[in-house]
Write a structure and sequence with these properties.
The protein is mainly alpha-helical and 186 residues long. The chain contains seven helices and five strands, in the order βαββαααβαβαα. The strands form two sheets. The protein has a three-stranded parallel sheet with strand order 1-2-4. Strands 3-5 form a two-stranded antiparallel ribbon. It starts with a strand and ends with a helix.
Length: 186
């Protein structure tokens, strides 16, 4: 059984993260990506929105429902970016894409799990200082994703709960160190 890796996508560049994840899932790694709305794309929001709207105009003329499907949610945009880097029409590629899960925010099973970052894809290490960038959540919101506010509210609740848990954990740890110190002295 391969261990599932949970990636916190906050502050990562879209293409660089996608290429690394594509390689990982092709090698058989189970990958879960959380906080996809915080992924960064180089170039300002206006430019990215214009590019995405050009993509939205591409459709099948006779039967648009057959044509390219334009996802609005950040997790699905990431999924489609990765799909372009995977031979998805083969069994191997389809199986690889089944090993990938993406979420906006951090839903309950993964909020208590250790989350990883990908240093090769981090914005602070890859995008030059002063260059424009935009968040995938803002782009999605501007092209028709309707759940940005809901995700933000749920994330605030999760962060408050996490903060309380961390404070309790620190208190317990300090009590534990005091107890061990008193035992060693006695």
């Amino acid at each position: 059984m391969v261990k599932t890796v949970v990636i916190d996508a906050r502050g990562h560049m879209l293409g660089r993260l996608a290429s690394i994840l594509a390689k990982q899932i092709l090698n058989g790694q189970q990958v879960v990506v959380v906080r996809t709305e915080e992924i960064c794309i180089s170039g300002g929001l206006v430019r990215q929105k214009m590019k995405y709207e050009r993509f939205l105009r591409k459709r099948m003329n006779t039967q648009p429902s057959h044509g390219p499907i334009h996802f609005r949610a950040p997790s699905k945009i990431l999924w489609r970016t990765i799909r372009g880097m995977v031979p998805h029409k083969t069994k191997r590629g389809a199986a690889a894409l089944d090993r990938l899960k993406g979420f906006e925010g951090i839903p309950p099973p993964y909020d208590k799990v250790k989350r990883m970052v990908v240093p090769d894809a981090l914005k602070v290490l890859r995008l030059q200082h002063g260059h424009k960038f935009c968040k995938l959540g803002d782009l999605s919101n501007s092209v028709g994703w309707k759940h940005q506010e809901a995700v933000k509210d749920l994330e605030e609740v999760r962060k408050a709960r996490s903060k309380d848990y961390y404070a309790a954990k620190k208190k317990l740890q300090s009590l534990k160190t005091k107890a061990t110190a008193s035992v060693e002295q006695a």
